[in-house]
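Working notes for the structural subgroup meeting. M.R. asked for a predicted model of this chain before we commit to crystallization trials. I am recording the input and output together here so anyone reviewing the notebook later can reproduce the run.

Input as submitted:
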Amino acid sequence: MSDIEIRDDRAAGRLEALEAGEVVGRVEYFVLDAPERALVPVHTIVEPAHEGRGIAGSLARELYALARREDVAVAPLCPYVVKWAERHPEEAPAADPELLRAAKEWLVANPERF
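Returned structure, recorded in token form:
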């Protein structure tokens, strides 16, 4: 993967991968406040011209690193992030089932968000 920069656009709920200033991939997420604070990834998207370069994996890795830095959990609802976490348990601790339930309820209650 060449010079990819990853930035967190918290206000928009996106972790973005940029190459030469262009967004080439993103993880869309929200922040859950209860039962505990958590980052909840919902979608991972990589632009077709940039697929197969490890961008989605880099985004998932950075999402978990961001959560560690902020001392919060990750409650993945995005199928890609769920699979990535299963393959990288040393970097992606399993989410508490109650936290996942709360994240799913939030998503159902806020369908306009995604």
